[in-house]
Amino acid sequence: MKKIQKLFPRAITAVERFLRNQQETNMVAAEYKGYAASFGPSVITAGLLPTLAFYTDSSRGVTRQEPRRYHILEAICYTAEIASEEIEPNTLLNEVRQLAVSNDYSIDRTQLLILQKKIINASIAVKLALRSLEQIPQAT
Asked: Which residues, given as ranges, of the chain have pLDDT below 50?
């Protein structure tokens, strides 16, 4: 079975659990579609660690009502089976740093590539799962 296809049921659960709007039960904010669409290309062009740092927008307010980039990371973590519950905004970044960057700041490239492939596959599954729910139009 293809990797994305295996992740897809878990991605649907992640989208419903972490990205779905609480008031509109079958809808997600339109911003999430853009966040999900740009995640993979950002990893490829900038690298995994810079992308995770950008998506970890923990300095902003933490509410479920407003779309935040780190909500996408929650869904990706859940889909990739890195975390099963709600996570702190910088959990994925810290996890990757812990697994791929040693104490002397050298990077274990093999471990980083394994994590990167796992996270990109999960992000693709989340991006596809987002299409199963209607989009709430962006507030202007």
From this structure: none
